[in-house]
From TrEMBL, chain A:
Keywords: Signal, Transport. This is Solute-binding protein family 5 domain-containing protein. Residues 32-52 have a biased composition (Low complexity). Residues 29-61 are annotated as: Disordered. The lineage of its organism: Bacteria, Bacillati, Bacillota, Bacilli, Bacillales.
UniProtKB/TrEMBL annotation, chain C:
It is a multi-pass membrane protein. This is ABC transmembrane type-1 domain-containing protein. InterPro entries: MetI-like, MetI-like_sf. The chain crosses the membrane at residues 9-30, 101-121, 133-163, 183-201, 240-266, 286-312. The keyword Iron does not apply. One of its GO terms (cellular component) is plasma membrane. It comes from Alicyclobacillus ferrooxydans.
Length: 581, 305, 319
């Protein structure tokens, strides 16, 4: 049930900004020795996950390390932790499967028009929990809400982009129109079938945007103006939902109680009651160990993994995350303009040693923009250079780039003629990130590059300085959690705002455009285009890739999650899970 | 004068010997009363040992507290690492030994800062009264209400650092109102006393009256308060470290070591990681409080039942 | 007395003005705002989104304009909108204050109910075995940072014995949110605070009691042949408690301040966590609201302490 795209959009660092107390959410991550996408199952008791007949009943208590906000209409709140709570009660149009392929959810089938601008979607035979069917009108109502002026200004919503590519989104956004039905963006064919027309031909739009829409019930909300939804009782506790669980009670920002939705269209869940609690990350492992909590959604640190594995009755899974940690550099600064210098930095960092030491082996060093878990990731067989640790090679590359070794063991920056002294910035709150900074400083010293660590700053300060090209920022540590679809846009185009490195490269832009044009509607062609682009990035090294960390999932062996439901981004299809009584 | 606060015993000895009188001065008597307080004496010795340990840290361990042992993170105590290493690969024993430097520095320097501000502002307010008094008291109220964490974030963003000295500055700048109120109330009482009136009659200036006559009279109370202040600032450092506003890592401090050890598994299975810093903080504060208590009894003979 | 209270209350207004101005300026002096952390590559044009959010919240206006705009709305009861939590500030502050008050009032009750009687008992037989033992214990309690207690209490009562909850201000089930449920959840965090502060109170009560018992008027009372109990309650206890009122007044200010670390460890959604997350997220409206609430509480606490002085000590008169 993990949110597609949207759920994973929260950056590593964003999580860190929520509170200083939450060390290690996301950014620490972890990484694994395996890159096959299944991770390592460490339980003493693996049999429980696959054998036995499902039993109905029981209460499943889950814990999150960071609080959610009690704004439970889908997309009202931007927090990943709120999205987790909402996700068990509202289904998206499309879900993912174990191998991160997009599969039907509320949208049963979809077909493209011949001009590739219109997609026709047929809805599954799903009903709201009050018995009304989920209809095309509900989808239209939801799309209008996401595009509306009230949502994007008064409510300060952040998911307007989901419907941004649909014809008429701009006019609805500035109040000149109120419905996609009148702008030509949406056409209702029947109660269960509709078509959406996009502004441009785009092979990624269905996956990146439309798939994540979670319909809301028009018949419940149509009489409330959108601008006052944030004070509506439905927002505090939605009464009518279409997901596997219905809200029984929302206890402020402390906990949420659900009961199984008997009318859920994918089958009534086996587990009767569901509880999600907010628990301090310091305490989470203890509650898991003593059985008060059966599943931890977030808040486990790489350092907890080895200890958790020693506790009988706990299953730990550490599949690779669809994201990466990186050492950011300002590519336009004279010291980084030569890509040989950037390659030297990549060669000069012993990333495997850092993964082993700091992340306890829970991560995989990477050298390109798509982590191994992505279906489109290029491998060494495709020609990717893994940049295995090689300080000698790093030294040679620096020599070629004119970075001569000075008398005291540190190199001279040819752009200034003085001893190079690079500053490295990172955010506070997570000891893992700090350990990385110290390790990078010491590795780069070994190849003659002097690095000075800035004081860690809170995430907002770092983000603002990185975004605004602040003079004090030369290198920084951050990470990205990527959406399931490998679309490079957003991070990698020369004009993208999140291209913090300010890597402006026409060749790369052209290669990216080839990954979503008309030809890319064929998955194999799209993959070929993505690989071509990755090889280029791998060679130009616009930022210093560190590793793809591992997700850490841990749950009681009494909780049975079928193997087919365990994706690398977390378990799916909660209706299939069951508890050993 | 504030510098004498750091080691109360020396102060007393120095004062006595300078006067060189054969008969017992009040300070001398206080010193003798302090010396019979066993808890205070033991505490002084223990505190001195902790101070010496922090200063002489390089003699106690040759391992640097900021050297990362990347290939041996999270190791239990063993030959290379007396108390093991933490999750970042730092040697815990070395960090415990060196960590006291930051804590004690913050404790003592901030006490000096706060006592100085309190003496000057509280003294002026108490001596002159009137609008000066109102103004100082309003500023006190203002500082009482100032969100301390916001100040740290803003200053560290502006100065681009969270060095020990920035932390000392922030704690010092926000920690003085309570002490200032105390000094003011003491001065308000003294202002009307006969010896102050007498020296005013004899034409002494305000400066002379304050520093030659009034300050020595409140010194006893202030030394006691200063001791408790040291303990309070050390506790504050630990608390700040736990919520992520401590000194710039990887600089070691007890609060930092402790805050990295609050996870369930560390508490349950790695006492060597959290017990030493917790014990060092607690023992240091305990010793200082016992010393303060001993000093109070010593300076205030009426306290002896 | 009435005019005195009115004068004090009016005196709070300029103080609140200066505090809010100072906090407002500090907040805006720090680089970055709540919207810089929007980092979602799926957003096609984040700069436009950020700019529109900033405009929506008037962050593009001059600072003085923003301040007066904010204060104009604030006094009419509109406390604005939280940037980070997408909710009206008043909806966030309400539950947070409630939680924090429950916690801190409980802590205060435990502290006073144990601390003062303990101090009194110690002072009845000073330097006895009882006095010595309890004094040393309270001295040790007073010296341990309270978050260490919190961790040990969680470890013992919530994880090992499982008799108290380790997290949250309310539980689950039909009784969630009842007063009893609140008290049940606040007990461990309240105890963590109380263990430290009751040591402080018992210590001061003991000292104060001893000092008062030596006063001439107490001797006189005994000399008059008054019963021990009467002297104790009417002369000693009453006078000994006066100095404690100062501490109590300071405590009142802290009642709504919340304890950041404690609330973090217990995931207790009170004012402390609200404030720190607002500071970290540059959630300006929330910071301003918590600052004002805290300032008002401190100022009222001072006032209350002064009034209590007058009630307890007939020599003090305000006019």
């Amino acid at each position: 049930m993990k949110r597609i795209g949207k759920g994973s959009m929260a950056t590593i660092a964003l999580a860190a900004s929520l509170t200083m107390l939450v060390a290690g959410c996301g950014s620490g991550g972890g990484s694994t020795n395996s890159s096959n996408g299944t991770g390592s199952n460490s339980s003493n008791n693996t049999s429980t996950t696959t054998t036995g007949q499902p039993v109905d009943g029981g209460t499943l208590t889950m814990a999150q390390g960071t609080k959610f906000n009690d704004e439970l209409i889908p997309d009202m709140d931007a927090s990943l932790y709120t999205a987790n709570v909402v996700g068990y009660a509202f289904d998206p149009l499309m879900n993912i499967d174990k191998n991160l392929n997009f599969v039907s959810d509320l949208a049963q089938t979809w077909t493209w028009s011949s001009d590739k601008k219109t997609v026709t979607i047929t809805l599954a035979n799903a009903n709201w929990s009050d018995g009304q069917p989920v209809t095309s009108d509900d989808v239209l109502f939801t799309m209008n809400y996401l595009a509306s002026k009230a949502y994007n200004t008064t409510l300060q919503g952040q998911y307007g982009y989901l419907v941004g590519p649909v014809v008429g989104s701009t006019r609805i956004g500035n109040g000149k129109a109120t419905s996609f039905a009148s702008t030509g963006g949406f056409k209702k064919i029947s109660a269960k079938q509709f078509s959406i027309t996009f502004k441009t031909v785009d092979a990624a739009v269905l996956w990146s945007d439309i798939s994540s829409i979670q319909p809301i019930p028009e018949h419940v909300l149509k009489n409330i103006p959108i601008s006052s939804w944030n004070t509506a009782s439905y927002d505090k506790q939605p009464t009518v939902v279409d997901g596997p669980y219905t809200f029984k009670q929302v206890n402020g920002q402390d906990s949420v109680e659900y009961t199984a939705n008997p009318n859920y269209f994918q089958g009534k869940p086996h587990i009767t009651n569901l509880v999600i609690k907010t628990v301090s990350p310091d305490v989470v492992p203890g509650l898991l160990a003593n059985g008060s909590v059966q599943y931890v959604l977030s808040g486990l640190k790489p350092t907890d993994v080895a200890k958790l594995k020693q506790i009988p009755g706990i299953v730990v899974k550490t599949p690779p995350e669809n994201g990466f940690s990186y050492l950011g550099i300002k590519d336009y600064l004279p010291e980084f303009k030569n890509y040989k210098v950037r390659q030297a930095l990549e060669y000069g960092l012993n990333r495997q040693a850092m993964v082993d030491g700091i992340l306890k082996g829970l991560g995989t060093p990477i050298s390109g923009p798509l982590p191994p878990v992505s279906w489109a990731a290029a491998t060494t067989a495709d020609g990717m250079n893994p940049y295995n640790y090689n300080p000698t090679k790093a030294g040679q590359l620096l020599d070629q780039a004119g970075w001569k070794m000075g008398s005291n063991g540190f190199r001279i920056d040819p752009s200034t003629g003085k001893e190079a002294n690079l500053t490295l910035s990172y955010s506070s709150g997570d000891p893992t990130v700090q350990a990385e900074a110290v390790a990078i400083q010491s590795d780069l010293a070994k190849i003659g590059i002097k690095v000075t660590l800035n004081s860690p700053m809170d995430f907002n300060t770092l983000a603002s300085k990185v975004e605004s090209n602040d003079k004090s920022i030369q290198m920084w540590l951050m990470g990205w959690s990527l959406s399931i679809d490998p679309d490079p846009r957003g991070l990698w185009m020369s004009t993208d705002a999140f291209n913090f490195e300010r890597w402006k490269n026409k060749t790369s832009d052209q290669m990216i455009n080839a990954t979503w044009d008309a030809a890319a509607f064929n998955k194999a062609d799209r993959k070929a285009a993505l690989i071509k682009w990755q090889l280029y990035v791998n060679q130009r090294m616009p930022l210093i890739f560190l590793w793809a960390p591992d997700n850490v999932f841990a749950y009681s062996s009494k909780l049975n999650i079928p193997n087919k439901d365990f994706s690398s981004q977390g378990p799916l299809n909660i209706q299939d899970w069951w508890l050993t009584q | 004068m504030s510098a004498q606060v750091s080691t109360p015993n020396d102060t007393n000895i120095e004062v006595t010997s300078r006067r060189g009188r054969p008969s017992k001065s009040p300070t001398r008597m206080a010193f003798e009363r302090f010396m019979v307080n066993k808890a205070a004496i033991i505490s002084t010795v223990v505190l001195l040992l902790i101070v010496i340990m922090s200063i002489a840290a390089p003699l106690i361990t040759h391992v640097s507290p900021t050297h990362q042992f990347l290939s041996s993170t999270d190791t239990p105590p063993g030959p290379g690492h007396v108390l093991g290493t933490d999750q970042s690969g730092f040697d815990l024993f070395s960090r415990d030994v060196y960590g006291g430097r930051v804590d004690l520095l913050i404790g003592f320097v901030d006490t000096v800062i706060v006592m100085t501000i309190a003496m000057v502002l509280g003294g002026l307010a108490g001596y002159y009264g009137g609008w000066i008094d109102s103004l100082v008291m309003r500023v006190c109220d203002f500082m009482f209400n100032f969100p301390f964490l916001l100040l740290i974030i803003v200053l560290s963003a502006i100065f681009n650092t969270t060095s020990v000295w920035l932390l000392i500055l922030v704690i010092g700048l926000t920690g003085w109102p309570g002490m200032t109120r105390l000094v003011r109330s003491l001065f308000l009482n003294l202002r009307e006393s006969e010896f102050v009136l007498a020296s005013r009659m004899s034409g002494a200036g305000a400066f002379r009256i304050i520093f030659r006559h009034m300050v020595p009279n409140v010194m006893g109370v202030m030394v006691v308060q200063a001791t408790f202040a040291v303990a309070g600032f050390i506790a504050a450092e630990a608390a700040l470290a736990v919520i992520g506003f401590g000194v710039k890592p990887p600089t070691p401090s007890w609060g930092d070591v402790l805050s990295n050890s609050l996870g369930y598994f560390t508490l349950a299975t790695e006492p060597y990681a959290w017990v030493p810093p917790a014990a060092l903080i607690t023992i240091t504060i305990l010793c200082i409080n016992f010393i303060g208590d001993g000093l109070r009894d010593a300076f205030d003979p009426s306290f002896e039942a | 007395m009435g005019t005195y209270i009115t004068r004090r209350l009016l005196g709070m207004i300029p103080m609140l003005f200066f505090i809010t101005v100072a906090v407002f300026l500090m907040m805006h002096a720090a680089p970055g705002n709540a919207f810089n952390s929007i980092m979602n590559p799926a957003i096609k044009d984040p700069q436009a989104l950020i700019a529109s959010l900033e405009a929506q919240n008037f962050l593009n206006k001059p600072l003085w304009w923003q301040y007066f705009h904010w204060i104009g709305l604030f006094v009419t009861g509109n406390w604005g909108f939280s940037f980070a939590q997408h909710a009206p500030v008043i909806d966030l502050v309400g539950p947070a204050i409630q939680n924090t008050l429950i916690l801190s009032v409980m802590a205060e009750i435990i502290t006073l109910a144990i601390g003062i009687p303990l101090g009194v008992l110690q002072s009845r037989k000073p330097y006895s075995g009882f006095d010595y033992t309890t004094s040393v214990v309270s001295f040790i309690l007073f010296s341990v940072p309270y978050f260490i207690f919190a961790i040990l209490l969680i470890y013992l009562f919530a994880i090992h014995l499982r008799i108290f909850p380790a997290q949250g201000a309310v539980g689950t089930g039909p009784n969630a949110g009842s007063l009893l449920d609140h008290i049940y959840h606040a007990l461990l965090p309240a105890l963590s605070i109380s263990l430290v502060s009751l040591a402080f109170y018992s210590r001061n009560t003991r000292g104060s009691m001893l000092e008062v018992s030596r006063k001439d008027y107490v001797r006189t009372a005994y000399a008059k042949g008054l019963m021990e109990g009467k002297v104790f309650s009417k002369h000693v206890l009453r006078n000994a408690l006066i100095p404690l009122i100062t501490f109590f007044g300071l405590d009142i200010g802290n009642l709504v301040g919340g304890a950041v670390i404690l609330e973090g460890l217990f995931s207790y959604q009170g004012m402390g966590l609200l404030t720190i997350s607002a500071v970290n997220n540059r959630d300006y409206n929330v910071i301003m609201a918590t600052t004002i609430i805290f300032a008002v509480a401190v100022l009222l606490g001072n006032l209350l302490a002064d009034i209590l002085y007058a009630v307890v000590d007939p020599r003090i008169r305000y006019n």
